Amino acid sequence: MSYLKIATHVPLTHADAVREAIGKAGGGKLGKYSFCSFSSKGTGRFLPNAGAKPTIGKVGKLEEVEEERIEFVCEENLKERIVAAIRQAHPYEEPSIDICLVEI
């Protein structure tokens, strides 16, 4: 069976909701455990360009936000469902979602 590692960056205010959505969609299952993830905190930086509708910040102004990186593994066949769940729970117009193939 193929597995993926998926990571996303989310403002601290929405981290619990995104983690919950990931787990409910089937992300973070390891053996007899579920809702497994690892988080680290950092600073996200971005510049909303013309036409953007930023949740935080203003168009044309560089923004910094305290964010949490949430990473977890999942079966490859759940990718679309989990990405959709992240996008639904995530407050950003364009959330960062990193996906890579892993061997478990």
Automatic annotation (TrEMBL):
Domain of life assignment: Bacteria
InterPro entries listed in its UniProt record: DUF34/NIF3_sf, N-reg_PII/ATP_PRibTrfase_C
Signal peptide: none
UniProt xrefs under SUPFAM superfamilies: NIF3 (NGG1p interacting factor 3)-like
Listed Gene3D superfamilies: 3.30.70.120
Protein name: NGG1p interacting factor NIF3
Organism: Candidatus Kaiserbacteria bacterium RIFCSPHIGHO2_02_FULL_49_16
